[in-house]
Amino acid sequence: MITKEAIEAAHERIKVYIDHTPVMTSEAINALVGANVFFKCENLQKAGAFKARGAMNAVLVLSNEARAKGVATHSSGNHAQAIARSAKIMGIKSYIVMPHTAPEIKKRGVISFGGEIFECEPTLESRETTLQEVVKKTGASVIHPFNDYEVITGQATVAKEFFEDIPSLEVIIPPVGGGGLLSGTALSTKYFSPATSVFAGEPEGADDAYRSLKSGIIEPSQSNSIADGLLTTVGDKTFPIIRDHVKGVITVSDQEIINAMRILWENLKVIVEPSGAVPFAAVLKAKDTFRNKKVGVILSGGNVDLSRAFKLFGL
């Protein structure tokens, strides 16, 4: 089990390489929701997403011998950029397997950090097979996007910061894809704010976490949503934490995600990608659950392909 001390140590380890992201509020949004909503803006994080935290922590704890061979991962984009950035900081190579359907902005981000991209089909099987081939050739250390305890520990620092900045949150809600951020959030809540309830937002078209909590076993993902960063299945390391510490998962449609993005853009004046807007879409959908409460929403990323976004809004 990841301890409170491990999260504190990870935060100390990575803090010079990440931003302490701001918390934003909007009176208009509070009135719309009927609650006091606080937004932890990880869309303003290094490389545009919370993934910078877990990736940096995982790279920093590698031995010098392991680092010398480089690091490798598979990712649709935000973790890919975070690993490439972390590798560049440490002066080592990064090998990134990405589906050919990944947003161009995220591919460009990987390249800008010196990462070498290996494209694959947009399936988990293709990702993993391609990654195995890359590792066989390079000897690089694999840093999984979410099913890795050092990654989870790094992601837990988001909620730790949130609780430090906004004490006494009654609810905290991140998005869930593979569960790295959600499981890290759940553990930080357990250690630093145990009175806070943990929920998660998830796309209806990729609702494996919702179904897994219902069945008690890991269910496959359908992977059909505009929230490209959440099109994966919870892992055997993340799911037990989610199962034991998360109160509920709220699923939202693509149209509800688009509506949430519009409200955030118009009221907070910040760019939030579809995956990052999912937890706010969940709050909007389940207003009665959160009414009159002090709600913390984690905006997980802001790497938007503007050409795609304009199409979503009919522009």
TrEMBL record:
Asked whether the keyword Cell membrane is assigned, the reply is no
The source organism is Ohtaekwangia koreensis
Q: Which family does it belong to?
A: Belongs to the serine/threonine dehydratase family.
This protein is called: Threonine dehydratase
List the taxonomic lineage: Bacteria, Pseudomonadati, Bacteroidota, Cytophagia, Cytophagales
Q: Which coenzymes or cofactors are required?
A: pyridoxal 5'-phosphate
The alphabetized UniProt keywords are: Lyase, Pyridoxal phosphate
The Gene Ontology terms for molecular function here are: ATP binding; L-serine ammonia-lyase activity; magnesium ion binding; pyridoxal phosphate binding; serine racemase activity; threonine racemase activity
Q: Which GO terms describe its biological process?
A: D-serine biosynthetic process
Tryptophan synthase beta chain-like PALP domain boundaries: 18-301
